[in-house]
Write a structure and sequence with these properties.
There is one protein chain. The chain is α+β, with helices and mostly antiparallel strands. The protein has three domains: 65 residues; 111 residues; 228 residues, no CATH class. The protein is built from 15 helices and 17 strands. A hairpin with a 5-residue loop joins β5 and β6.
């Protein structure tokens, strides 16, 4: 490092320390030494049959660390074994006690209990002592092992060695060509944005849709390019007629994919070519990882997501059509409550394609109405006897889960102003800002090289 300035040596050392730390973190995670802890709300834990309980699973971990492998809910309902990579989990009680959980089939959790778990679209588990985890002092958090992928481990190690061996030299070259380096990064981002225009977001393969596993005969799909013109409210169309039509369109445009392993392959994380800022933020926060578009047409164009993304898109469409709509947060589910006629509200469920003729307050605590509507909307999946058909186990689980979701406890209706994206006008402003900034940032990165080129031309023109 002789002949190089102290600033260069300090920056090189900082770079090596940073990537060395990342490498050690990745390496220790692959040795089972890193865990991710999720605090659990006892109010969000519900019986799942027998000795089993279910709650929302941990959906986010620090960047580049992977938590438990997720078994699709359809496979879990059919009593498939847990993924072989599943490791032990820990229940942390409010009293400071730790109890181990071992991966198991859903039927084993229900029948045997004894501290078993299964990570799926829900986190199914039983307590080691057979007690109710909702009781005071019982459940505080669940801790999972987290592993860095092999690719990230090798990449961080390679960057660390490169920074340690050649850091000062590389930094000096980068400083000499800072304008060119910045312009190259800006050009890459510009190409990425142009790729987004040429290859916009679109619905992924139908095979990712969870609901199609109930029974394909009940599940219809539609492409955004064909449905775009039908999204607007027609002249003279009643509010109720448009609300029902929009609910059906949203249901057909979306592929219901929820597993954390699908976020990039299914397009749940906003693709980098669509908005590299939202994509980047997705590595550092669950709200961006499972981003809910404020713009309903963007959400429908993406065409994949969970119940909250579907409900947000429908609420946004209804709001644009002048129909008051509110997001209703249920137990493990999100729907829309819309005022289709003055003083009359009804619940719309775009995830399942169901429209209830009643407001949420009249549905709560009446599971027979929920089951009746589901059977009418999905006649093949819920046909009698329920044991018939490949999707029957998932259908039974869905029936019981949805009936519980509309229970009288824990439901909350958001104000109409917080419908699209759940965040109100500020949320929409932020989203529009990122779509402007994704074009501004590349030009700002290219600007230093342009300025230097213009300066050199002026110097040549001025002469000696």
């Amino acid at each position: 490092m002789k002949g190089r300035g102290p600033a260069t040596r300090a920056a090189s050392m900082a770079l090596a320390i940073f990537f060395g730390g990342l490498f050690l973190l990745a390496l220790s995670s692959r040795m089972g030494m890193v865990r991710v802890t999720r605090t659990m709300d006892p109010g969000g834990v519900f019986p799942a049959g027998g000795r089993a309980f279910m709650a929302d699973p941990p959906r986010f971990s620090p960047p580049f660390l992977e938590t438990q492998p997720v078994l699709p809910i359809g496979d879990a309902a059919r009593d498939a074994p847990p993924p072989p990579e599943s490791g032990p989990a820990l229940i942390l009680s409010q009293q400071g006690r730790r109890s181990a959980l071992i991966p198991a089939r859903l039927s084993e959790i229900r029948e045997k209990g004894g501290g078993r778990y299964l990570s799926s679209d829900f986190f199914f588990f039983s307590t080691p002592d057979g007690s109710d985890p909702r009781a005071p002092g019982k459940l505080c958090a669940v801790s999972f092992p987290a592993r860095a992928s092999l690719g990230w481990t090798l990449a961080s190690g390679l960057i660390f060695l490169t920074a340690a061996a050649f850091g000062p030299r590389l930094l000096e070259k980068a400083a000499k060509h800072a304008a060119a380096t910045s312009a190259a990064a800006g050009a890459l981002l510009l190409v990425l944005n142009l790729a987004g225009l040429a290859f916009p977001m679109q619905s992924p393969d139908k095979g990712l849709d969870l609901l199609a596993r109930l029974d394909p005969a009940d599940r219809a799909f539609e492409d955004f390019s064909r449905a775009r013109e039908s999204l607007a409210r027609k002249p003279g169309e009643s509010a109720e007629g448009y609300a029902l039509r929009a609910n059906g369109i949203a249901h057909r445009l979306f592929r219901y994919a929820w597993c954390a392993a699908d976020v990039d392959s299914a397009g749940i994380r906003v693709p980098a070519r669509e908005n590299f800022l939202l994509h980047f933020f997705g590595f550092f926060g669950e709200n961006f990882l499972y981003y809910r578009f404020y713009d309903p047409k963007k959400a429908l164009q993406r065409g994949v997501g969970r119940c909250d993304q579907m409900a947000s898109a429908l609420a946004g469409l209804l709001g644009e059509a002048g129909i008051p709509a509110s997001i209703a947060l249920l137990t493990h589910h999100v729907v829309v409550e819309a005022e289709v006629t003055p003083g009359a509200r009804r619940v719309l469920d775009p995830t399942l394609g169901v429209a209830f003729p009643l407001p949420l307050a009249d549905l709560e605590g009446r599971p027979e109405l929920v089951e009746k509507a589901l059977r009418a909307a999905w006649p093949h999946a819920f046909r009698e006897p329920e044991a018939a058909g490949r999707g029957a186990p998932l259908a039974r689980l869905l029936l019981s889960t949805m009936a519980a979701a509309y229970g009288p406890e824990g439901n909350r209706v958001l104000p109409p102003g917080e419908a699209a994206g759940f965040g109100g006008a500020g949320y929409g402003k932020f989203e529009r800002w990122t779509y402007r900034a994704k074009w501004i940032v590349p030009f700002l990165l290219i600007l230093p090289l342009l300025a230097r080129g213009i300066g050199r031309r002026r110097e040549r023109a001025a002469g000696p």
